[in-house]
Specification:
Elements: H1 3-12, H2 31-48, H3 56-67, H4 72-75, H5 80-88, H6 99-103, H7 105-121, H8 123-144, H9 147-169, H10 176-186
Helix pairs in contact: 2-3, 2-8, 2-10, 3-7, 3-8, 7-8, 8-9, 8-10, 9-10
């Protein structure tokens, strides 16, 4: 099977995999929509902080944001409690198996290469993507979450986003857009 066919087929499935299956939401969201929104947040923060697409760190951070949940295309959106229980049982904190490397090795290899490069040279960029990931979820639930469970999930994510915000504040770089993005995304929670 041609690499493009396998790679493209797996990527296109991101538009069919639903998120928030254990949280009541007024509007369905797909993994593809989520990853796109995370990429837009990373782009806005980095652009507002003076980075350009000529900077390899920005291109790599955007790539990581665009593909950070591709593994969920094969097994669906995994709720945070499931991920935490997996880690507590001794599993890897991010990837819960080797399905992506088996079914989409080119995608898996590129994501790992970019993440490893960032962790080696710009570890703050990986934290920035995770921060944007949390901000996107907070914003989405702020607009479309229903009921007390959605609010509880959002409040937990706000706590975690604060932890990443603190880590990013400690980097030697200046990110003036970090605070603005945080305020903008959590404003629905008063």
């Amino acid at each position: 099977m041609p690499i493009l066919s396998e790679s493209l087929r797996v990527r296109m499935r991101a538009g069919h995999v639903r998120r928030w299956h254990i949280v009541a939401v007024a509007r369905e969201q797909t993994i593809s929509d989520h990853m796109h929104r995370v990429e837009m947040i990373v782009d806005a923060i980095m652009t507002d902080s003076g980075f350009t697409c000529a900077d390899s760190v920005m291109l790599n951070a955007l790539f990581l944001a665009r593909y950070h949940d591709m593994d969920e295309v094969l097994w669906g959106d995994l709720p945070s409690p499931t991920k935490r229980m997996h880690v507590e049982a001794g599993g890897h904190p991010v990837k819960l198996g080797h399905l992506l490397s088996e079914y989409a090795p080119t995608v898996d290899r590129r994501v790992k290469e970019v993440e490893d490069a960032l962790l080696t040279s710009y570890p703050w960029a990986v934290d920035l993507v995770k921060y944007a990931d949390l901000l996107e979820a907070i914003d989405y639930l702020g607009h479309f979450g229903l009921g007390p469970h959605a609010k509880d999930v959002s409040m937990e994510m706000i706590k975690r986003a604060n932890e990443y915000l603190q880590k990013l504040r400690e980097t030697p770089l200046s990110f003036p857009a970090l605070e603005t993005a945080y305020v903008e995304m959590v404003k629905n929670y008063g």
